[in-house]
Amino acid sequence: MPISSLKGTCIYRYVSIVAMAALFHPGVSLAGGNEVNFSLTDNPARWFDTGTTIAGTRSLAVAKPGVRVNFSGNSNTVHTRTSVIYPTGAAGMPFNTPPRKSGDSVTLKTPGLYVFTCSIHPYMLGAVIVDDPNTSGLDLGNSISLINGITVPSSSDLATRLLHTFFVATNPANWQNYASNTPWHITYPNVDVRVDIGVVNLPTVLNARYGNDRALEPLQNPVMPAVGEVWVATQFETASGKSKPGTVTAVSGATWQVTRKVALPSINMNNAHNMWTDRNQNVIYATQWFDSKLAVYDRQTGALIRNVSVGEAPAHVMTRTDTDELHITNNGDTRTDSVMELAPLATGVERRIDIGRGNAHAHWMSHDGKKMVTPNVLTGDTTEYSFGSNSVESILPASTPFGHPLATGMMPDASKYYVANMLDNTMTVVNMNTHAVIKTINLIANYNPVTGAITGPVGALPIQTPVSPDGKNMVTANMLSGTITVIDTRPGVPTSDAVVAMLPCDPGCHGVQYGAKQGGGYYAYVASKFSNRLLVVDPDPNGDGNPSDAVIAGKVGLFASAGTQRDATITGNPGMGGQGVLPVPVIYNGWVQNLPAAWKSQLTAAQQNPAQ
């Protein structure tokens, strides 16, 4: 029964809303308490945990105006407490803290919807609805504002799309499970909410706009095999013998079957996020994003080699092509020397590199080992660093102050690079020779955030965005829109640095990397957080260099089968949490030339020298 039907007199309204608040969170009770407690954890979907479940989520609370919201740390790494969404004009907003493990609190006075996140791990979500007991329906406010300045009516498509994403992200039962034959069902709280157009039933609106009980399309292997294998950070999968989530999953490019699961229970591997490999493709380096360590294991056996302390919230790892040294971004470190340099095979930390900023995420290294570029998440800018002079060559604005630059991609000749700005929904293009921003690509130019109308390719909340090894296209995973966008990166063509294609993706679309297709060309592999399948994109199916005809060439499950080798029993969220992707062999310009002969012989001449 909708909540509004229970409300009558002013006194009864007050009692009913406090009772509903108690249902959402025990800290809000009829005794008069008005407090919400969030524990920040490493656990999938319970990153902001109230301890009480409502409609499948433990990350939502309802309270009266004046509620005190407390955040306590129960995680192995640091987090921010950031009000990513709040009622427009709300007192004390936006609220934002530096990354830390200690507790914080904020008082919410203005009725409406407040959504909190961690700017280091931006899919961590917790929400509080501050409700005026003298109104019918739970108050969402007349309009909502995002921390980067975007403001829309609370009934708009953007507002309800964000609500839809919240309920998918914070309830594992709402994730797309391709290991099951049942339709995809999303559970929403059956409540009436007050928005700018009046009182509406929340699930009725969300179901009408985004559908429900949809049959999931069958998995389908690509027709053309791939060279080698694909490793995916299935970050939310849980396994026996460990208290922290996260495995790394290997998929054969020949059979498209899951061949191995690596959970590393001996070190309690925690939220493995992104991977790279050494020059000989023998070991895999996996960052533990909700921790402070880098796991190193044998690619062929899955056996642990070492577990190296590197710093808070290590996010991405890559090697230098000339030295095979590792470079790791400590995403939770606010110090300017937040990039770690490790000896080959990660045998030890050699130094900290000062990039002029902290909190870098998905960096990229140049083909000749001379340059590194970083997106600096909390400062809205990007750094270009020279290993030749061991100095910062430029720090350029990439987004608005809260635009959240998250990932980079670089042309194979290091002539320019791209920065994906998640909250600004833009791509910044930087000339590496002149150190100047030469273009900003608006990924939501074809989207009306109020009506939801889409008139062309759209990419909302872009995340990973590598450039193809031959420099002809760039594939971007977009979290909010559930789309894959393809940008034409060829210089000198009319569509250069323009979005030329859009493909469907799963909820939480996140990770992308390119691998070699047998016989020539490339696949781009796309992983999603709230799904357990890997999408295989052919960005140039007819081989003419123009990516406007890009297609989904395959849909591959990431869950184990009877033949999957593993070091632990999978206990939950099978194949879920797809984030970082590592195709082996690494075939980007600079790395591919260093491959052992056994790997190089499987590539075409064009794949062996992609920049020619």
From TrEMBL:
Keywords assigned by UniProt, alphabetized: Signal
Signal peptide location: 1-31
Gene3D superfamilies, A to Z: Cupredoxins - blue copper proteins, YVTN repeat-like/Quinoprotein amine dehydrogenase
Top-level taxon: Bacteria
Protein name per the record: 40-residue YVTN family beta-propeller repeat-containing protein
Classification lineage: Bacteria, Pseudomonadati, Pseudomonadota, Betaproteobacteria, Nitrosomonadales
